[in-house]
Amino acid sequence: MSNMQQTFIIIKPDAVERGLIGKIISRFEDKYFQVTALQMRWKSWVWCERHYEHIVNKDIRDDLKDFMTAAPIIGIVLVGPNVIATIRQMVGCTDSLAALPGTIRGDFGTSPIMYNVIHAADSEESARKEMAFFFDSETDQTHA
Fold first, then answer.
1. pTM score, two decimals?
2. Which is the catalytic residue, given 51, 54, 119, 143?
3. What is the CATH code of the structural domain delimited by 4-139?
């Protein structure tokens, strides 16, 4: 197959709490992308700080940390031809209210903007870094 790639996505807490896990994964499997790793994790503020370090506004970053640590999230590695570009197209734009119908965010996302149900890596380099960091248990929260 041409241009086989792997990428990384995160199903966010809002989607987990709303029971959208299967619907989201089905869309990728329907597109013949293979799930090669999947894990549900509770992430810590340390993980969020690093994952969202590109967001300069501290207030927004702190809101994201509260949101992303309020419930478990699911990290998924997907493999397929042109998987990065295709999944980014399937996911839709960051703002769910502006995302096109038929995209994951357009169909399932809500407001505020962080309630956009999913994160998708934007490049092979980002995917590699995000996978390694997500599956590192040092950044998990502990739950009794």
1. 0.92
2. 119
3. 3.30.70.141
